[in-house]
């Protein structure tokens, strides 16, 4: 992240260019980078897909995507620069000899080859082999891919092996789009640039930590994918564990990729396993039933389009996580995430410990504890809940709970905001792997998640129902109540 070196122009090849990820996110992000003049002049964008299209047809598709998803007026000058970079190749990705077509457009002497895998995982190995045979790869070429990178340790290892057969680890960029979010990155600044936090960030001062990633959306026509995946694998294995590692890791030596990856892996290694022995007391699985969201009635999980009515896949999960290391001994991390919850909210709550003695009993029998609340989305900011004296001269000292509130939107209102994909694509073009996930990290995360998944299988219990529009099943409250705590609402 420190290196802001100028980077070489790229041949950015998007495999699956007509697909959802490409048309909804990648094209929009690349256009926005163009608008901000962050793409090198000689960079080319090569769209690859199975369908036979003329370049003009693809350019039209790109324009329509922008019209639909950009949420701002398309600037003509930017569009002209952007569309001039586009080219289109029809390739059947399962046919190794067809990759030769790429050699007609890429030029490894002038540009770095960036291969963006915006395709279903079954094509990963085909593309790796096709590229390998094509003769266009150099030591600088890289690959970018994102979840699902397997559905358990074994399948993830198979994918990683397929990539490792052709590319070195430094050439592989695994995306977790949460690592592109400004507020997730700000956790590094908050923790390691502010001495009030660096010295108060362990079991001596912190009682417990909560991470909530609540979504309003249901499964949005992704029944097949989601039902085979579930919320634990879809959200917790990646996004919540990434947030957790940023909160829990030791200070890295610097901001280089290796230093940060090393510290994150140590956290993942220290996660106490959840097994058949403790799964009942440490986890809650839920599935939404019909309910109301913002006044609108919405169907339950089993009533969604294409639903299998016998499904016992979880759309909600809450966990108590313990980290077995010196810093976090006896500090529980409570994680919860679900679809069709009350409102979209991603936040971290750091609950500080109770003071040893209370001299303000007139105000509070039990002094409320300090909380640091980090809002990741939709509103971005940091809030500290503390106690202050109520102004007055009646001779008493009455306390009141107040908030120190830093909204990023207000504090940095002149700064342009970029989405996660813009940041991550730019980091790939810079060749900086800091914000990406290493093989060791992802496999360590799967090892821990597989144990939970196995324990659930063994437990063989149906997920607990919760009405759409709520904060999850009652059992999720009970998980914390059991420890004398409650979720921050
Ligand atoms: C994706 C999941 O990784 O993240 C989706 O597959 C989920 O199910 C999405 O809705 C949430 O992302 P965000 O950025 O909206 O919090």
Question: In the CATH hierarchy, what is the superfamily of the largest domain?
Answer: Dihydrodipicolinate Reductase, domain 2
The top-level CATH class of the largest domain is Alpha Beta
What fold name stands as the CATH topology of the largest domain? Answer: Dihydrodipicolinate Reductase, domain 2
Cα-to-Cα separation, first versus last residue: 35 Å
Q: What is the β-strand count?
A: 17
Strand content: 15-25%
Uncertain segments are: 1-5
Give the rounded overall mean pLDDT.
Answer: 93
The tally of structural domains comes to 2
Count, helices: 14
**Bound small molecules, deduplicated:** 6-O-phosphono-beta-D-glucopyranose
Give me some keywords for this one.
single chain, 489 residues, alpha/beta, Rossmann fold, Dihydrodipicolinate Reductase, domain 2, 14 helices, 17 strands, 34% helix
Structure notes:
This protein has 489 residues and is an alpha/beta fold. The chain has two domains: 10-146, NAD(P)-binding Rossmann-like Domain (Rossmann fold, 3-Layer(aba) Sandwich), CATH 3.40.50.720; 179-416 and 438-481, Dihydrodipicolinate Reductase, domain 2 (2-Layer Sandwich), CATH 3.30.360.10. Helices cover 34% and strands 21% of the residues. It has helices at 20-35, 55-69, 76-84, 124-134, 153-164, 182-192, 195-198, 223-248, 257-270, 279-282, 408-411, 420-430, 439-459, 474-481, and strands at residues 10-15, 44-49, 86-90, 112-117, 142-146, 172-175, 206-214, 283-289, 291-293, 296-298, 316-321, 333-338, 345-352, 371-377, 381-389, 399-407, 464-467. A nine-stranded mixed sheet has the order 16-15-14-13-7-12-11-8-17, with helices on both faces. Helix 5 (153-164) packs antiparallel against helix 13 (439-459). The radius of gyration is 24 Å and the shape is globular. The protein binds 6-O-phosphono-beta-D-glucopyranose. Residues 215, 217, 234-235 line the site of 6-O-phosphono-beta-D-glucopyranose.
